[in-house]
Amino acid sequence: MGREGTHAAGRRGSRHEGAVPVQPMSDATKRLPGRVVTEATAAIAALVAEGTLKPGDRLLAQRLADRLGISRFPIGQAMRILAERGLLTADPGRGFSVATDGPCHAASFRAERGGGDLASAYFRIAEDRLSGALPEHISEQAMRDRYGLGRGQLAQLLNRMAGEGWAERRPGYGWRFSAVLTTPAALEQSYRLRLAIEPASLLEPGYRLDGNLLRQCREVELRMLDGEIETASADTLYERGVRFHEAIVGASGNPFFLDTLKRVNRIRRLLVYRSLADRSRYRQQAAEHLELLATLERGAQAEAAALLRAHLQGVMEKLSAVRPLLEAKSHPEG
Amino acid sequence: MGREGTHAAGRRGSRHEGAVPVQPMSDATKRLPGRVVTEATAAIAALVAEGTLKPGDRLLAQRLADRLGISRFPIGQAMRILAERGLLTADPGRGFSVATDGPCHAASFRAERGGGDLASAYFRIAEDRLSGALPEHISEQAMRDRYGLGRGQLAQLLNRMAGEGWAERRPGYGWRFSAVLTTPAALEQSYRLRLAIEPASLLEPGYRLDGNLLRQCREVELRMLDGEIETASADTLYERGVRFHEAIVGASGNPFFLDTLKRVNRIRRLLVYRSLADRSRYRQQAAEHLELLATLERGAQAEAAALLRAHLQGVMEKLSAVRPLLEAKSHPEG
DNA sequence: ACTTGCATTTCTTGCGGCGTAAATGCACAA
DNA sequence: TTGTGCATTTACGCCGCAAGAAATGCAAGT
C-alpha cells in the first residue's frame, strides 16, 4: 500500500495525518475527524461487519466507549459518520442502531488505517539509510528539513530507532546511524535470536494457546495455501508470518519473550525489505505452521518446540542461499 | 487551572542538571559547564589518572576531540577547568600539558556523573508505580504536576517507559501503566528469558571473548570476593552482575542477543529494587562467574553454556524462595 | 605546517501561547 | 432510572521565540 502518502505536504499537516480520505463529506460532518474518532469509526464498522452487532441492534455509547477505552464523545461522532454512510440509522433522541443493510456497507470500510504520516517517515528513513542515501552523521535539524517533520515527531522517531538499536545520539549534537542494519550478517543473527527464544517460549510453565486463537491461526494458514500466497502483497505475506509467530509465542504468557520477538521482528522487517519475496517458500512454511498448530493442540510442547526449531532453521538456511543477493552493498568493517 | 503551576522548583533547573557541584569556582570558569564539557573533563582526568597521559605530555585539542567524538570547543573548556584544578598547566599560546603533580589530583575526579534529574524522576515514577501509589491511568498533565517535569522531559521519560514495555499511550489522552511490573511472576519470567538467550549466545558461531576483557572481568570478580561484597552498595553489586553477564553475551558478536539482555536487565533493575539484597548469595555467584570465565578461556563453549544455564537456574531458585517477600502487594487480575 | 584562541555560526532545548481533539458534567427525554 | 445530546472543561500537539551550548571558520603565533 502506498505508505509514502503525504510527504510533500509535510510541515503544515497538523495532526490529522493522512487518514480518512473518505470523500468531500456532506455538511453535518464537515470537520475531518481526529485520530480517535477515526479509529472508533473503523472499530464499530468492524463490529457490524463481523456480525457482533446485527441489524436493528441499538448502540449504547457508554458501552462502546468502555470497550474501546475511550470516552463517549468520539463514539458519538463516529456513529454520526456511520449513519451518514448508511451503516447505522439515527433515531433522534434514542441514539443509533444498525441499519438493515448495514452489514453490506460495512465491508467497504476496510481499515483505511492512517497512522501513516509517522510510519511513512520511519520507512523512508530506514530505506534511505539502507540504500546509503542518508549520511552516517546528521543533525536533527537536517532530518527535520529532509523529511518535513515537526520537533515532536522527529524526536519520537529517533527514540524509536535508538531503541531498535540502529541510531544513537552523538555526544555533542546530532545522531549517528550504526552499521547494524547494513551488515549482511544481521538478518542471520536475528534468526539465531529467534531460534533461541521461540522454541523456549513453548516450554514456558503456563503455556496455553487459546482455542479461538488457534482456530484463527489455522484459518489464516489455510487461506494462504488456498491461493493468497500468490495474490497477496509481499508486505501482507510478511505480516502474516510475523503474526503467526507472535501469536504462538504470546501464548506463553511471558511478556518478555513476546516483547523480544516483536522487537526483533520490527527490525527484521527493515532487513528483509530488499529481499525479493520468494513466494515458493511460503507454501512449505504454511504447511509447517499447520503442523505446529496441530502439535500444540495435542499439548505436546516439547515436540512442538523441536518442530519450531527445525522450522526456523529451515528458513534460515533458505535465507543464506539468498544472501549473496543482499550483499550488494557489503561494508567490510573492522 | 492546573497548568500554570510551575509549582515546585523543578522547572528552572535548566539543563545543567545536578552535575559538577565542584565549588563556587573562581572567575575564569564562572559559567557552569554543559553536558559535553563535563564529560570531556572527566574523560581527560581519567586519561591522566590511568597513566595514558604522563606529566609533561602536551595535550592536542584536535586529537582529544577526535577520540571523544566531539569538537575542539568543549575540549578547550575542559582543559581550562582542569588547569584551574591543578591537573594541567597552561602554556599560554601553546595549549596545555599535564602537570607534574597531575596524577595525584586526578584521582579526586571520581565520576561525579550527573544526568541525575531525569534519572531520579524515572526511578521515582517506577517506585511509585511498584508501590501502587501511581494510578493505572494518568494524564501527562497530572504527571508533570506530580513530578515537576517540563513537557519535553516527561515525554522523554514516557517514551522510554513505553519502550521498556511498562507504559503505553491510551487511545485518547493519558497513559496506562501495564501490569508487567506489579505482577510477582515478572522477575521469574525475566529470568526465563535470560535462561533462553544467555547460554545460546555462548554457542554463536563467531564467539570470541577478548583476552583483555576476560582478565578485566576476572579481576572484578576477585575484588568482589575479596571483600567488596560486604562493602559495596546494593546498587553497585547489581551493576557488577549486569556488567558481567552483558560482557559475556556481548562477546558473541550478535547485537540482538546483547540488546535483548540489556533491555531485560533495565527492567529487572526495577523489579529487584525492593528485594533486599541478600549479600551471601553473591559469594557463590562470584565463584560461578569465575568458573565460567575459566571455561570460556579454554574455549569449551558447550560446557560454558551448560554452566551458565545452571548458574541462572540456581539464581532463579534462590529467588523463588524470597518470592513471598515480594508478594506484599499481589494484584490478582483476570 | 600545525595549533591555539577567539569570533561566528549552527544546533538544541525550555517555555508559553494557540488551536483543536477528547473527556466530562449536566439538563432533559424516554 | 438510564441514556442521549450539548456545553463546558481539560489535555495535548505544534509553533515561535530566546538562551545556551557546541561546532566551525579564521587569524595570529610558534
Describe this structure as you would to a colleague.
The structure is a homodimer of 334-residue chains. Chain A is mostly helical. The first copy, chain A, has three domains: 30-109, Arc Repressor Mutant, subunit A, CATH 1.10.10.10; 116-182, Arc Repressor Mutant, subunit A (Orthogonal Bundle), CATH 1.10.10; 185-328, Up-down Bundle (Four Helix Bundle (Hemerythrin (Met), subunit A)). Mean pLDDT of chain A is 83; it is low at 1-29 and 328-334. In chain A, helix 8 (185-202) runs antiparallel to helix 11, helix 8 runs antiparallel to helix 13 (301-326) and helix 10 (234-250) runs antiparallel to helix 11. The first copy, chain A, is built from 13 helices and six strands. The two termini of chain A are 39 Å apart. In chain A, a hairpin with a 5-residue loop joins strand 5 (167-169) and strand 6 (175-177). A three-stranded antiparallel beta sheet of chain A has the order 1-3-2. In chain A, strands 4-6-5 form a three-stranded antiparallel beta sheet. The longest helix of chain A is centred in the last third of the chain and has 26 residues, at 301-326. At the A-B interface, helix 7, helix 8 and helix 11 of A face helix 7, helix 8 and helix 11 of B. The structure holds a DNA duplex (30 and 30 nucleotides).
Summarize the structure.
In chain A, the strands form 2 sheets. In chain A, strands 1-3-2 form a 3-stranded antiparallel beta sheet. Chain A has a 3-stranded antiparallel beta sheet with strand order 4-6-5.
